[in-house]
């Protein structure tokens, strides 16, 4: 059966029901049974939900969580279906078409809570990528998101606490756990380099942190294996569903500043200073693009204007870049002061301001022609849809060759600040690169990645291995295990544009069905941390929302891992829904 057609047919039936009862729903808060009986209308429909998830060979853990959720939904009288979507179709339906009821997947969690603004602000309900894919709206929360951008110290912390309490109460999505990044490394390669844990494994600059061990045989080519073929086919850093953890575009394109060693620090920028609402920045000297053209202050001005409107004013509407709209929105204007200096007008407090410098710089001479509107409804120009298979960036590596779906080869860009011995703090910290070439090899599965290492065909896996392979890696003398915490959040997403998922009470009732502690123990084998709220740094979490052996806001409706069905059903009744004689949840 075609899942896409099935989804469309289901939606049509549901819209018919919703359209005919919208007035009654407004009066009854979702409890239509008594009113329908009085008016002599047809019996209410059973709640039917479609939970999409990736297949086992792509993400076993998301698949397992979805399977448990569907089983629990059926136990409480909901007609639940569980179609599996290949990765490309999953991204399209969730992050582009918004064609889902619920999904189980992963998202990147920003280090600063400001990332929640683009994730949940109501102005982004029609945008793409990780800009409010849930269709969630709360005008009061919107105001708090805007407030925290202009606050500092304890005042901002208090506002963040209020925001997290509102999110926990309304459950626009259910945070489950952040997993551990797991990679396998050939033992001879692990012994030849230091610094494997210097940068967290799933950060885009992870491999920049390793250094050759003195006396070890130098390696010209470093071979990384992955099951994700997207980096070999799509080298556009603006694509909405490319993760911020993507190493490929992050090695090709550089920002003015990056977060490392606990704070946002100068990268292509040599320094900056902030005076009130103005930030003055100076570039490092002699920066160049991969094609040899100089990188100047004009490219900075162009980048911020382009990311704010990729049509560059050629259309009646603005077409911003969804992926970096949050950072660009912090900057009102960019004034060029010279070849290497700019002045930015910033609409944010000092703690938030440096985040404006973390988007990738784009060469004006390459991107200025990509302004054609290709999808007016979705707000897309050629800048966002272009595959960009011949990228010109300024990162520490440049494209050498690619074979779509199979391999990608990058070469060291010797003109980059970390690769030239200029005595800068950046060069001392990261450079020069420990290898001359990086080869990315695509394989079908996690197991195949490990087998590539065992057969000597690759040196390291991307740090997204399934925890089920840990025992195999540890049992092989030829392999070493590398792990670190990550900011990848497994979660259940709701489409709040659809009934009954538009009501917080219903979403909370669903959240009560999930035993997060048990999921971490059995699905992740302990290689994860349960989450009550979607932030990485514990210091932002108010005491009343911290994990205490269970979720303090939506505790599991059961004992051990056994669902108390009557207790779970009571949560749905409290949300305004009721049960038919056959035990079906109806509305």
TrEMBL record:
PROSITE patterns, A to Z: TAT
Residue ranges annotated for the Solute-binding protein family domain, each copy included: 264-583
GO MF, one example: peptide transmembrane transporter activity
GO biological process entries: peptide transport
Superkingdom of this protein's organism: Archaea
The name this protein goes by in its record: ABC-type transport system, periplasmic component
Species annotation: Halapricum desulfuricans
Gene symbol of the encoding locus: ddpA2
């Amino acid at each position: 059966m075609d899942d896409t057609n099935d989804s469309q047919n289901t939606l049509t039936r549901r819209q018919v029901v919703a359209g005919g009862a919208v007035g009654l729903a407004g009066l009854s808060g979702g409890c239509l049974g008594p009113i329908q009986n009085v008016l002599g209308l047809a019996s209410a429909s059973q709640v039917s939900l479609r939970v999409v998830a990736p297949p086992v060979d792509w993400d076993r853990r998301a698949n397992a969580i979805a399977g448990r959720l569907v089983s629990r939904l059926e136990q409480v009288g909901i007609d639940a279906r569980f179609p599996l979507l290949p990765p490309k179709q999953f991204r399209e339906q969730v992050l582009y078409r918004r064609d889902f009821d619920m999904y189980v997947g992963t998202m990147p969690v920003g280090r600063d809570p400001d990332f929640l603004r683009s994730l949940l602000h109501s102005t982004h309900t029609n945008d793409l990528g990780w800009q409010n894919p849930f269709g969630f709206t709360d005008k009061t929360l919107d105001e708090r998101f805007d407030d925290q951008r202009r606050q500092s110290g304890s005042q901002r912390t208090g506002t963040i606490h209020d925001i997290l309490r509102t999110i926990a109460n309304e459950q626009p999505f259910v945070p489950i756990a952040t997993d551990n990044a797991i990679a396998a490394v050939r033992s001879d390669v692990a012994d030849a380099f230091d610094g494997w844990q210097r940068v967290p494994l799933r950060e885009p600059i992870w491999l920049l942190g390793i250094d050759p061990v003195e006396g070890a045989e130098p390696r010209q080519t470093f071979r990384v294996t992955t099951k994700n073929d997207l980096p070999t086919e799509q080298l556009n850093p603006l694509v909405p569903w490319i993760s911020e953890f993507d190493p490929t575009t992050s090695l090709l394109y550089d920002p003015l500043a990056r977060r490392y060693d606990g704070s946002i620090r100068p990268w292509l920028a040599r320094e900056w200073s902030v005076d009130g609402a103005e930030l003055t920045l100076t570039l490092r000297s002699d920066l160049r693009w991969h094609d040899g053209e100089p990188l100047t202050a004009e490219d900075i001005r162009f980048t911020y204007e382009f990311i704010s409107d990729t049509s560059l004013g050629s259309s009646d509407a603005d077409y911003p870049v969804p992926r970096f709209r949050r950072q660009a929105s912090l900057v009102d204007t960019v004034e060029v002061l010279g070849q290497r200096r700019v002045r930015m007008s910033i609409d944010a407090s000092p703690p938030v301001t440096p985040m404006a410098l973390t988007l990738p710089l784009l060469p004006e001479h390459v991107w200025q022609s990509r302004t054609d509107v290709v999808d007016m409804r979705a707000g897309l120009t050629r800048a966002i849809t272009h595959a960009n298979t011949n990228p010109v960036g300024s990162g520490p590596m440049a494209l050498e060759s690619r074979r779509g779906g199979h391999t990608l080869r990058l070469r060291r860009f010797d003109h980059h600040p970390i690769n030239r011995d200029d005595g800068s703090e950046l060069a001392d910290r990261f450079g020069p690169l420990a290898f001359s070439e990086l080869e990315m090899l695509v394989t079908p599965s996690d197991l195949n990645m490990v087998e590539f290492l065992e057969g000597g065909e690759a040196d390291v896996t991307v740090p997204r291995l399934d925890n089920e392979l840990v025992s195999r890696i540890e049992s092989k003398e030829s392999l070493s295990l590398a792990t670190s915490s990550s900011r990848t959040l497994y979660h259940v997403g709701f489409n709040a544009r659809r009934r009954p998922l538009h009501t917080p009470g219903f979403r909370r009732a669903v959240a009560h069905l999930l035993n997060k502690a048990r999921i971490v123990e059995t699905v992740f084998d302990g290689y994860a941390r349960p989450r009550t709220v979607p932030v990485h740094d514990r210091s932002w979490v108010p005491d009343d929302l911290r994990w205490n052996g269970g979720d303090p806001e939506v505790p599991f409706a059961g004992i051990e891992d056994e669902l108390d069905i009557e207790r779970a059903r009571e949560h749905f009744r409290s949300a305004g829904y009721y049960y038919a004689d056959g035990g079906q949840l109806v509305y």
